[in-house]
Design a protein that fits this description.
Blueprint (H helix, E strand, L loop, with lengths): L1 H13 L1 H9 L8 H32 L5 H6 L3 H11 L2 H18 L1 H4 L9 H21 L11 H6 L3 H10 L5 H4 L5 H13 L4 E3 L5 E3 L9 E7 L18 H9 L1 E7 L5 H10 L21 H7 L3 E6 L8 H6 L4 E3 L12 E2 L2 E2 L1 H17 L4 E6 L22 H19 L8 E7 L17 E7 L7 E3 L3 E2 L3 H8 L4 E3 L16 E4 L4 E5 L2 E6 L3 E7 L6 E4 L3 H19 L9
Parallel strand pairs: 3-9, 3-10, 4-12, 4-13, 5-6, 5-9
Antiparallel strand pairs: 1-2, 2-14, 4-11, 7-8, 10-11, 15-16, 16-17, 17-18, 18-19
Helix pairs in contact: 2-8, 3-6, 12-20, 17-18
Length: 587
């Protein structure tokens, strides 16, 4: 029934052009040939749009297991990449041709209903009455139907199936920014600060200032190792043999995991690359709506790159695609990094590329070239490298691995694994290798869908600290948030710095301090003590007992202390960004 209401809502808006046309034009106009052409063109566009939407939504569901949402709207900004991805992933010309043939056939069968239009009322006054009644329907729909009605079940799949793709797309389009104080449960900012103050004051070697600002003093001699942070596209923990996968698609990563330190209990902040980049660079909880990477007024923020730069490092962001995508160049170049993207490569240097960027092996060739420059210039370097190959259409150079290109996600995973292994082997021959810490981590999981709103298993990602001669083979099993990675790296290097990060050095945290943050663009989750607190719009708060293997969860009563802690983290993150209090300190 709810789904039918959403279908009617979408249909009411689609009929507006036809109603206006039949209302405003003189009755004699409808008999003309031009009118016939316009009417058939209108019905052709409407029917083709409906069919195209149905097919598109099928593929969107296959990828994300949800109706159209914020992701679909977000991708509209990058039509070149998205359309290119669709064309490389699916036989789009064949699909469009079949749809056009089907629409023309339907129009032929309905031709007598569309033309002639003898049923059109001749008198303008009476037509106006009908038109105003029909046009009132979209207005009533807009104000009378709520998007939240579809959330009638504890099963997220049921809720999504209750919706309507076009209606959900429209809702996401108009609601792609969410002000925390307007939509979420809040506390007095003084109470928020006191709660966060109490949490941060437990961390050793810190002297707190205001909000999250504090001096981190490791009281050891700083270790000026080079730092390479590889952010791997869509690398779920479940892909690695180290986590029980028996497909043998990550032999290189599994070898590195055995030789270095494997983090077994790490959770991504979100479901998009920009959320991963946000967590890795800003070390801040995910604020609702757009990632800060893509928001206005996001310059001169306190970032991992700015800390390294303050220590005399050359901070780099190296990306295999074009940096304008997802606002990467604008964000990183104005927040302590120098950006290098695929435009730095000559055509002769590219073995393969698709719409998202060059093959990962070419990205790493570019990276080694840039790191060699820093070494030759006598500067320590921090490089954050973002891969692209593990992304639909899952294409890569042939002959590298035993899975043909464009066949499966597993093939793309194995190719990225191959490229990382090749990069490490080439780096071993460099004079800077033995003084370099390599950190390999996913930006997010390959899939985020589940029966519940925030399935925790769909946020479980791997991370490896690798530095032969510095890090012994080991595992780190404590619960870790993606936003803890930056402070943990800085802690490992014994840096003394003035921090604003929400994350902390997990090597020094007590067991009771373990927590993680997971989110969609509107649901904000906080994992602690085996519970998951979820903040949703309309100031809703729910607590669950999640199963970390299956992702399913059972609702339990809210705990006031845990709820207030959750609110404090997310409210303060939004407060600091909105009030420009997360900026670098002026020197």
């Amino acid at each position: 029934m709810i789904g039918l209401l959403y279908d009617m809502a979408a249909a009411s808006f689609a009929c507006v052009p036809l109603v206006v046309y039949l209302w405003l034009f003189p009755a004699r106009w409808y008999r003309k040939k031009t009118s016939k052409i316009l009417l058939f063109a209108y019905f052709f566009i409407v029917l083709l749009s409906l069919l195209f939407n149905a097919v598109s939504e099928w593929f969107f569901w296959e990828e994300f297991s949800v109706r159209y949402n914020f992701i679909a709207v977000d991708y509209l900004v990058y039509t070149t990449e998205v359309i290119g991805n669709i064309r490389q992933s699916y036989p789009i010309n064949t699909i469009l041709s079949i749809m056009i043939v089907l629409v023309v056939a339907v129009l032929f069968l309905l031709r007598k209903l569309i033309w002639p239009v003898n049923h059109v009322e001749q008198r303008f006054k009476k037509r106006s009455l009908y038109a105003l009644l029909l046009l009132a329907l979209p207005v009533l729909v807009y104000f009378g139907i709520s998007h939240k009605w579809k959330y009638l079940s504890s099963n997220q799949y049921v809720n999504e199936l209750s919706g309507n793709g076009m209606y959900d797309f429209g809702f996401a389009f108009w609601n792609n920014q969410l002000d925390y104080n307007t939509f979420y449960k809040t506390l007095p900012i003084s109470k928020v600060e006191s709660i966060i103050h109490l949490i941060l004051s437990k961390a050793p070697d810190t002297k707190r200032d205001s909000y999250t600002s504090r001096l981190v003093d490791n009281k050891l001699r700083e270790n000026k190792m080079n730092m390479v942070l590889i952010s791997v596209e869509s690398l779920s923990a479940e892909f690695l043999g180290s986590f029980g996968n028996n497909q043998h698609i990550t032999p290189e990563l599994d070898t590195l995991a055995k030789a270095g330190m494997l983090f077994t209990n790490l959770y991504a902040s979100g479901t998009r690359t920009v959320r991963g980049l946000e967590a890795l660079s800003l070390c801040i909880p995910p604020t609702p709506g757009q990632s800060i990477v893509k928001r206005p007024d996001n310059r001169n923020l306190f970032t991992l790159g700015s800390v390294f730069r303050s220590k005399g490092y050359h901070s780099r962001f190296i990306y295999g695609g074009y940096g304008y995508f997802d606002n990467m160049t604008e964000f990183f170049s104005n927040n302590g990094y120098e950006v290098t993207d695929r435009s730095a490569l000559k055509d002769s240097e590219i073995h393969y590329s698709n719409i998202w960027g060059v093959a990962d092996e070419d990205l790493f060739t570019l990276s080694i070239r840039e790191l060699d420059k820093d070494y030759q210039n006598g500067k320590p370097f921090f490089a954050q490298i973002m891969t692209v190959s593990n992304h639909r259409p899952y294409t890569y150079p042939e002959g590298r691995i035993d899975i043909p290109s464009k066949t499966s996600r597993e093939g793309a995973v194995k190719y990225t694994d191959y490229a990382i292994g090749k990069f490490i082997r080439e780096a071993r021959n460099k004079p800077w290798f033995l003084n370099t810490l390599f950190v390999i981590v996913a930006d997010h999981c390959a899939s985020s869908a589940g029966k519940v709103e925030l399935p925790v298993d769909k946020y479980h990602i791997p991370m490896i600290f690798y530095a032969p001669g510095h890090i012994a083979p080991s595992k780190f099993d404590k619960l870790t948030a993606q936003l803890d990675i930056g402070p943990t790296i800085l802690g490992y290097l014994s840096f003394r710095y003035q921090s604003k990060f929400f994350g902390h050095d997990v090597f020094k945290m007590e067991d009771v301090e373990q927590r993680a943050f997971i989110s969609t663009y509107q649901s904000l989750g906080y994992i602690r003590d085996g519970k998951l607190v979820v903040l949703d719009p309309n100031k809703k708060v729910n607590t669950f007992r999640p199963d970390f293997k299956t992702g399913e969860s059972t609702k339990v009563p809210n705990d006031e202390k845990l709820t207030n802690e959750t609110i404090s983290y997310y409210q303060l993150a939004s407060f600091l960004y909105q009030n420009k209090l997360y900026q670098q300190e002026k020197r």
